[in-house]
Amino acid sequence: MTPRRRRLILVLGILAGVAIAGTLALQAFRENVMFFFDPSQVAQGEAPEGERFRLGGMVEKGSVVRAPGSLQVQFIVTDFQRSVPVHYSGVLPDLFREGQGVVAHGRLGTDGVFNADEVLAKHDEKYMPPEVKRSLKPPATPAAAPQG
Amino acid sequence: MDWTWFHRFGSPPHLYGLAGKLTPWFAWPAALLILAGLYGGLALAPPDYQQGDGFRIIYVHAPSAWLSLMAYTWMAAAAAIGLVWRMKVAHAVAASCAPIGAWFTVAALCTGMLWGKPMWGTYWVWDPRLTAELVLLFLYLGYIGLRSAIEDPQRADRASAVLAIVGVVNVPIVRYSVEWWNSIHQAPSVMKFGKPSISWPMLTPLLIMFVGFTLLFVALMLVRARGEILRRERQSRWVSEVVAQ
Lengths: 148, 245
Known about the structure:
The structure holds 2 protein chains of 2 kinds. Chain A is of the alpha+beta class. Chain A is built from 4 helices and 6 strands. Residues 140-148 of chain A have low confidence and may be disordered. In chain B, helix 2 packs antiparallel against helix 8, helix 3 (58-85) packs parallel to helix 8 (200-232) and helix 4 (88-119) runs antiparallel to helix 5.
């Protein structure tokens, strides 16, 4: 075996080793790498109980209720399978809309209500001008859960 | 198989001359395309149905992020060639990729933060995509730091090449983080199989920017590689001849 060939095998070996180690590490930390849990995962008890975590999904259409004269707001986060009611008090980001993605940070109460202290909007990957959006017909049935 | 064409790349004077000849062929199209793309993106493209004019930061953010990954891949590939074939100019190319890639990573992070504040409601969250891109910046900085910490150029080349190759595992992590895990960052709109999820009048300037940024990267890399080759070969006769001209 020539030295060059040995070095080539060494480099490929490093790559393979690091790739395997990385894959295993990421598999092991899978839950910790998750930025948020969706309502189905919460229903299955995958979200940490009694601890702060992030809840992500779509804001259900027609579910947003604002208390007049305050920053209190209630809405329902859904992944079209399960849903979780959320209570929040504070300023909402610009992109917070019904039917759009959202990530709330807080605790799940024993009553099943998620008390959020931070609400972030999650934008989807679709970009289009307003007139194109208007011409699109709304989908009859939500086909799939929102992209994670 | 005749490998002379490959070994000619290994000759510093040859590569120095070739890089000098090629630079304008990348730099001028890059400048024209970036100007056209900026005009198209900032003036001609319609505003987004939700984000209004705020979406226009994509015209700098997405090409910068793309380059931050591409530059790293080039750097690791050049470092591997340098390591396996003991080719000094390959290490020079790898070394000249690092600062360019690092700056494009900074640009991607900063533009993303500026967009994130109004759209998501926060500058920064420890999200898989954002964190992996920050790790990419640290890999670049680590590579640059390791090179400058070792005085012997040959040892610096080899040690930094191993770091570059090990770090390349982060590139697919950055790219696929939004698909493997729940992430606040949106899924790719353009760099994916299938139809882009961005309308054509908005996409055209973006594609122009992608090509322009890529050519800009090549032009910057050629200029830097020339400087790096001169610095390494400063004792040799051909360099004093070039400088004397």
